[in-house]
Specification:
heterodimer; A: 192 residues; mainly beta; 6-stranded antiparallel beta sheet; 3-stranded antiparallel beta sheet; 1 helix; 15% helix; B: mainly beta; Immunoglobulin-like; 3 domains; 7-stranded mixed beta sheet; 4-stranded antiparallel beta sheet; 2 helices; 19 strands; 12% helix; elongated
Chain lengths: 192, 325
């Protein structure tokens, strides 16, 4: 057998194998699969739209009422449920008056917590133990310690929700003129 | 002269809200079937775990992650110690250093850490947590100012196999006034080695034994070896006096229940009036007694009745005299 005929034989053989492979592969190509991966986002909760009026100096203790809005979002895509707590630090005084003092954190209290309102995502479950909802025992109380204001059980709370919170700050008697700044800590939790 | 106190905390205008909204961090366990770490380990065992940290927001952010102790908040539920607070107990089982880092938009990174159960650890459920938060408090200056920390907490539950010993104890009762309303609180502790979710029934009785108020509190998770408080805000201010609180708790899943009675002294305190309007979720108070009656109105009605009686008798007597005449 000459080299030429040997090359021709090899080429024919290769063509036959290629044809065979093509015929075997064709059915697989006919059932192409499309895979789309969905990656999850995070859990977020923060306070916004905080409104408190300025307070005039008074000799006696007095309370000032305000409002704030909590926004909680579950973009994890897992619907595993979550819990949100809110707390505050002392209100640190800054000013030029003589004898200014901080206002203790326990002077800041939650006076009511509204129902969750859906902004986007899964509807608010109206049945018990679904949510997102206010805990069954009112979270009303001082915010020197964390208060759970909203939670969603597993399979609920996939979306973004807002909640109106009413608060009051009891200003001690003879509180000096100045600015009192507190730090709000909002925590959204994935835990038992 | 009226001076103005800039009560700072509390006006976050839209610009500040937008900044806070930009804090969208992600902290998720890797290779876990649930939303938090829930693992079983034996004393002396070490295991390596992994967590994913991400910035899902639309701004570059400096974040901080750290491990912190878990405690039970009022009426049950997760409480995580703040940044800088001392780590104790189960948190010391983790090798997870506090770390500050910059995250670009969309950044995701994995961080591994180890958990080592001490050789002398007894059986039971142990919990600690990982936190991810904005490093710099979100601030908004001006006539009003606000600072905010936005945290995400991830539980790390380690169960050491062995005997389970659920338990719950009741401590002292207290009364306090918040925003012009009474709040009842009862100290409770979980000295056992498993977490609970008890239902606590509170019955408040006055010195005559009459029921003044009743409440049922479904506590959220009450972690093992922690203390907490059962707290019930009332819709009115309790009168000064001596009361007794009956505290009955039950956790059906853990097969424990008990009842205790605690004394409560309420002292009259000058306090601002409660905020106007109905507040949902408060517990009713039944204090209708003789002191609460509207005495001025009653005196006015009694006077009117006496005058009417006099007029009727006077009229009858005149009629009788006329008929005799």
């Amino acid at each position: 057998m000459t080299n030429r005929s040997l090359r021709r034989g090899l080429a024919l053989g290769a063509s036959a194998i290629a044809l065979l492979l093509t015929s075997v592969a064709s059915p697989a190509l006919a059932v192409d699969t499309v895979t789309q991966t969905i990656t999850g986002g995070g859990l977020t909760a923060s306070i916004g739209d905080l409104n408190f009026p300025d307070a005039a100096y008074q000799n006696g203790e007095h309370a000032v009422a305000g409002t704030m809005v909590l926004t909680a979002a579950d973009d994890t895509g897992t619907s595993s449920g979550w819990k949100v707590t809110v707390m505050t630090s002392n209100f640190v005084w800054a000013g030029s008056a003589v004898g200014g003092q901080d206002i203790p954190a326990q002077a800041f209290a939650l006076t009511s917590a509204g129902a969750a309102v859906m902004i986007s995502g899964q509807a608010v479950g109206v049945a018990a133990a679904t949510g997102p909802q206010v805990p069954p025992t009112s979270p009303v109380g001082t915010l020197d310690t964390p208060r759970q204001v909203l939670y969603a059980t597993a399979a609920y709370g996939a979306g973004t929700y807002s909640q109106a919170l009413n608060v009051t700050l009891t200003i001690p008697a003879l509180s000096r003129v100045g600015t009192y700044t507190g730090t709000l800590t909002t925590t959204i939790t994935a835990a038992p | 002269m009226v001076a103005v106190l800039g009560v700072a905390l509390l006006v976050l205008a839209s610009p500040a809200s937008a900044e806070v909204d930009g804090v969208e961090l992600g902290l998720v366990p890797v290779g876990q079937p649930g939303p938090f770490f829930d693992i079983s380990m034996r004393p002396g065992e070490t295991r390596t775990l992994e967590v994913e940290i991400a910035n899902h927001g639309s701004n570059r952010i400096t974040a901080r992650t750290y491990a912190t102790d878990v405690y039970t908040i009022i009426n049950g539920g997760f409480g995580g110690r703040l940044r800088g607070e001392a780590a104790t107990g189960t948190t010391l089982w983790l090798d997870y250093e506090s770390e500050r880092f910059d995250l670009a938009v969309g950044d995701r990174s994995l961080r591994s850490f180890t958990v080592t159960v001490p050789r002398d650890a007894g059986p039971g459920e142990y919990i600690t947590s990982l936190i991810l938060e904005n490093e710099d408090q979100v601030a908004h200056d001006g006539a009003v100012a606000a600072l905010q920390v936005v945290r995400q907490a991830l539980g790390v539950v380690v169960t050491v196999p062995g005997q389970r010993s659920p338990a719950m104890e009741v401590g002292q009762a207290q009364h306090k006034v918040v925003a012009g309303r009474s709040v009842l609180s009862v100290a409770v502790s979980n000295p056992g080695n498993v977490r609970l979710k008890p239902i606590v029934e509170l019955t408040l009785r006055d010195a005559d034994g009459d029921t003044v108020s009743q409440a049922s509190v479904r506590m959220d998770t009450f972690y093992a070896i922690t203390d907490s408080t059962v707290e019930v805000p009332l819709d009115a201010l309790l009168r000064a006096g001596t009361y007794a609180i009956e505290v009955a708790f039950e956790d059906v899943a853990q097969s424990i229940s008990s009842t205790a009675i605690r004394n409560l002294a309420v002292v009259a305190t000058p306090t601002p009036a409660p905020a106007a309007g109905v507040v949902p979720g408060l517990t009713g108070v039944n204090q209708d007694d003789i002191e609460a009656l509207p005495w001025p109105a009653i005196a006015l009605l009694a006077g009117a009745a006496l005058v009417a009686l006099f007029l009727v008798r006077h009229s009858r007597s005149r009629s009788r005299r006329r008929s005799i005449g």
